[in-house]
Amino acid sequence: xxxxxxxxxxxxxxxxxxxxxxxxxxxxxxxxxxxxxxxxxxxxxxxxxxxxxxxxxxxxxxxxxxxxxxxxxxxxxxxxxxxxxxxxxxxxxxxxxxxxxxxxxxxxxxxxxxxxxxxxxxxxxxxxxxxxxxxxxxxxxxxxxxxxxxxxxxxxxxxxxxxxxxxxxxxxxxxxxxxxxxxxxxxxxxxxxxxxxxxxxxxxxxxxxxxxxxxxxxxxxxxxxxxxxxxxxxxxxxxxxxxxxxxxxxxxxxxxxxxxxxxxxxxxxxxxxxxxxxxxxxxxxxxxxxxxxxxxxxxxxxxxxxxxxxxxxxxxxxxxxxxxxxxxxxxxxxxxxxxxxxxxxxxxxxxxxxxxxxxxxxxxxxxxxxxxxx
Length: 374
Hints:
Helices cover 87% and strands 0% of the residues. It has ten helices and no strands. Keywords: Cell projection, Cilium, Coiled coil, Flagellum. Residues 280-319 form the Dynein regulatory complex protein 1 C-terminal domain. It is found in: Cytoplasm, Cytoskeleton, Flagellum axoneme.
């Protein structure tokens, strides 16, 4: 019994062991398969992540390169625009600098000319003053000599030398000499004062004239600047026709006259002045062209106004002809003809009340207007 029981237990154990082994093998196979599936899924996920990462990286790289190219293009465009703007600004500043330099040179040239004139006058006045000083020195020397002679004569009188006749002659001579010297001195002094006064007046007049000339030049410069600005504005507002054919061509007669004037030897100064005015030739041509256009437009406006008035008059006549009222009937209307009007007006009131009014003949206005126009 015990052995049977052991056998039975051993069989049960073997059966349970086999069942457990089978379950273990089955579970092991399932785990291996699940592990293999999970590994495949992980590999797929890693591959997808790598592909996605590479796609994102390539897209980001492409976007970065595109942005880099766009930024470079914008930078180049900005540099080009800034270069053009700076070039224009530099050109404007250079033009302003040249204009200011030209104006400054002109003003300095005028001032230098005025300074040279004043310097020449000053040198001349200095020479005159030196001459007058020499005259004064010579007169003072003569006065000292005469005073010395006078003192000597006085000492001679004190000592009783000489005769009375010689003394009278010397005294008269000295008196006449003193009067002459005093007269020459006063005359020279008056001349010097007059020269100084005349020089000061000339200097004041020169300063006033130079200031007036500077103001006039500034006005002319301002006017020229305004003309240039207006010319620039007009140039921007030019039409295509004006840009292609801006000016009229001078006639042969005008060209011959210009050649004859240029050939004349006596008008050299005029030719030089005309050379300075050649820059304004296009301006005056443009101005004359605008005046001619204005005259043509005024004539066209007058003709259109006359035509409009005529059409209004014809339209009024036509409207008067198609509208029948007392005012129109009483007025003279060439488009409306009424017959038997006088007889109807002369009949007594009783007759007009008993019978109807006579028929009125009306002519069509279009027919009459066509005849009038023809």
